[in-house]
Amino acid sequence: xxxxxxxxxxxxxxxxxxxxxxxxxxxxxxxxxxxxxxxxxxxxxxxxxxxxxxxxxxxxxxxxxxxxxxxxxxxxxxxxxxxxxxxxxxxxxxxxxxxxxxxxxxxxxxxxxxxxxxxxxxxxxxxxxxxxxxxxxxxxxxxxxxxxxxxxxxxxxxxxxxxxxxxxxxxxx
Length: 173
Fold this sequence. Notes:
With 173 residues, the chain is α+β, with helices and mostly antiparallel strands. The chain is built from five helices and eight strands. It has a five-stranded antiparallel beta sheet with strand order 1-2-3-4-5, with helices on both faces. Strands 6-8-7 form a three-stranded antiparallel beta sheet, covered by helices on one side.
């Protein structure tokens, strides 16, 4: 996969990205909002990257792609499409804290949705975050997601206050 926007490149992981992926994963926001995507060692990241790379070309598992800033060639995070229950899919994304507040997540998610929904043949994508993660909810709203649930729900195996949004492709005439 290769998606280019004005400022970003969304591409496939390579093993030489392990160190920066590990560094990006341990920031305070990632630890707070998606603790299952925190890797304390580069070795843990390498194992994960081997698995993620093996998923490219199929739609059986998570499809995770790094986000690179063109101007600096910096790997700033990722965007992903993950199968959830009953043939449904969920989007996920993370921008390392030192790069947040620049509109990168919104830019990446908008570009990614357009391409990945066609490739995966899906018309509906869910976005689920903790209610306290207002920045993530704002990204989804800017990208055209609509709220379908706010309340107590399962979030990474624990009942927490969540926001569940859905994005649907436009109906073509």
